[in-house]
Amino acid sequence: MSASFDPNALSERVKAIPGGDMLMMCYSCGTCTSKCMVQTKLEESYNPRRLIREAVFNMEEAAFADKTTWLCTACDLCYPACPQKIHISGVINAVKTLAVESGKITPYQVAKVDELTCVACGLCVKICPYEAISPVEKRVAFRGNITVASVDAGKCMACGLCTAACRSTSIRLAQDYNDADIVETLLSWLEAERASS
Amino acid sequence: MVDAARQPLIEVKTFTEVEKVEGYVGNFVVTLREKAKYVRADRCNGCGACTKACPVEIPNYFEMNLAPRKAAYIPMSQAVPLIYNIDMDACIHCYKCVEACGSLEAIDFSMEDKLEEQEIGAIIVATGFGHFDPTPMTEYGYGRFPNVVTAMEMERLNNSAGPTHGALIRPSDSKEPKNIAIINCVGSRDKRYNPSCSNFCCMYAIKNALLIKQMHPGTEVSVYYIDIRTPSKGYEEFYDRAREAGIRFIQGRPAEITEDPDTHQLFIASEDITLGKVIEREYDMVMLNQAAVPQPDQNHMSSVLNVAQSPGGWFMEYHPKLRPMDSPTDGIFFAGACQGPKDIPASVAQGSAAAARASRILHSDSWQIEPTVAVVWPDRCVSAKDQACGICSRACPYGAIDYSKGLAAEVITAKCHGCGGCVGECPHDAITQLHYTDAQVLSQIRTLLAVEPEKKILAFRCQWCSYGGADLAGTSHFEYSANERGLRVMCSARMDADLIYEAYRLGAGAILYSGCHPQDCHYITGQISGAKRAARLEKMFERMQMSPGRFRVEWISAAEGDKYARVINEMQATLDAIPEDALKAEIERLRPEMEKKLTKLEDVPGVAQAMVQVDFIVDEMVGKEKTA
Question: Which of A160, B126, B196, B341 is most buried per CB count within 10 Å?
Fold first, then answer.
């Protein structure tokens, strides 16, 4: 890491993106990490404070590979807790934007569209809280030139709202929390209930 | 306190409020309201029989409401003077105290508040600080969780003279806590409440932790912190001692406290910064180390004393580094935390300094002030002609100008610090500043622009910063354009728009309007009003389509000699870039507009005569130069 000012350094690029401008105000108190639901319920190595430090010290590779970059749901629980009033999800989103721009994609699953059955009704576009789905016109095998939904892997957080909304089951989460898994879990609960009664 | 009360030259007035402060240094008239105690000081012997007899019990604020007190009470056992007091808000008028007092007849229900005026030479303000109430920080549950206490409550609980006689118990079940957490920076270093650091709480947390550990060795104490700040002599060693004693220091600010509603046990999950992991720990009791904040009535006190407040609400000192004990008003001094959070050694040092400063006033017959004070021409002041104005009074950062409609504005000379801000603001040129009168400054402008004015850069510099900056540029041998002509006034607030117009009317090539950076201003808000005027002028000249760069506003400190030289060189470069004919044509084009703005100047007393003299001298000198 060079000590001289570099406008292309990660920290400068993060600061230039709206939401990332307060990056340098962090004094590393750790409130965000202890407030974070993703950290406490989902992924132990998730740590917004560490991601901010990585951005401050221009550790580009580490920041782009950090799970924090990809798992933040922008629930903004940390924002009102931050004593420096830093919009932390804004900073994380800035890092993520840069990561996507440099060609990285999320290591986690994203929603998948079944283009053979999608009817382009637009329900998923409307319901997506991350504005990750948009209609595109493309050539699909057996169907010709049609409009179908398309998922932006850089924006999708795999929340599954689109899956629940889709009326033709054309948009799905393929790995975790897929329909088969959920049905299986529900059935096992049901069986357990029956056995106990 | 007892010593102070015994000193014959010190009069201690308790339960007394300052209602009004008038006058100026050496001659203050202070109105005091001595509140009725309903106990006669000359008869009460402090036996306490009234307290024993009183049937009323209310929360004791000295014990942080953890213990009761009677309506007939003393605020604390070390109260000076030891005279009882009846709280009329709580009293039920059973008169049992009167019976108990018996033949002493010290209790007198007919007493009333006494108003008294005193002549005072100097005032030392030592009103202290208040505590941040952590209730709005709902994440820490203060008020909801019984075992979350504030630092002051812990102080009373752990005090052998306190409500529990030193037995450390937790409020929910009165059991001794075995595991205590202290959370630092509650409400301080927090932009949602108080952005600043409260200075002493790190030491305070360590002190409390050590005290608990010493008195109850079986207790575990953990301190949550963002940074531990132990900057003074011996403080770091104290921190060492705490770690040696086994107190756990955990770096990381907890986001919230959760509670088991049945057992009232508390849980803190916080990130340990050094580990980078979230650690959850269970505690019997949590102490919130709250921020120090200004007293709740600090705003009121500030208006009574007519002293300004810093952004955080603390009283504002004359100069943060050089005169931290002086208020901007001569004769008023600060001691201790009313000026900003401070620990005991710093408060004692500041208090002694303030006392020395005050005694300097009391021991002198006269008081020296800057000679550059403002003076009003009463016949020019529109207020005397029954017009509502008061611009000068509002412009004065020291409240030194008395204004009332129907009377000419009056400068209280002893309060004036000589910035000239009122002179710069007065739209009728009815006020002037000694040694920087309009006549004097205009004479300088005229002399500096006597020869080839279109080639000159006229630099208005403020005495304290940009003049020093220019000086430093000179002593450091930073080379800058020889066409610069410097002109000193006390403050950028004095740089009257008329002076700028006149300089352009005379054909000045470029003008620099320079002063201190806003936080460095020698005259509290002088730079701010100067900057406002400069922005107005910039806009106006832009509308007049003056070439950009001919009017430049720069804030240059006394340490920025290089900046001064750079700015002047840049201005020279912009001047060079304008063709000479175009510049002359522009000056001619703008001259009538400047003249339009300048109608009143000749009427200002002294100006016309001075101009005749200056013109005569300039003609002589320029004539000689030409012949030679």
Answer: B341
Chain A residue set in contact with B, beta carbons under 8 Å: 27-35, 39-40, 44, 47, 49-50, 78, 80-81, 83-85
Q: A30 and B251: CB-CB below 8 Å?
A: yes
Distance CA B522, CA B515 (A): 10
Q: How far is CA B455 from the centre of its chain?
A: 44
A83: nearest CB among B253, B271, B277:
B253
For domain B436-627, give its CATH number from 1.25.40, 3.40.50, 3.30.420, 3.30.70. Answer: 3.40.50
Cβ of B271 within 8 Å of Cβ of A30? The answer is: yes
Which candidate from B189, B191, B253 shows the least CB-CB separation from A30?
Answer: B253
pLDDT for B626 equals 57
Q: What angle do CA B77, B79, B83 make, to 5 degrees?
A: 105
Contacts of residue B268, Cβ cutoff 8 Å, sequence gap at least 6: B181, B183, B224, B254, B257, B258, B280, B281, B283, B286
* Domains of chain A in sequence order: 10-101 (no CATH), 111-196 (3.30.70.20)
Token pair 């009463």: residue: B378
pTM: 0.82
Residue to mutate among B229, B253, B257, with most A CBs inside 10 A, is: B253
Write down the ipTM of this complex.
0.81
Size of interface A-B (CB pairs under 8 A): 59
pLDDT in tens, B163-206: 999 899 999 999 999 999 999 999 999 999 999 999 999 999 99
For chain B, which residues score pLDDT lower than 50?
none
> Which CATH code fits B369-435?
3.30.70.20
Position A3 scores a pLDDT of: 63
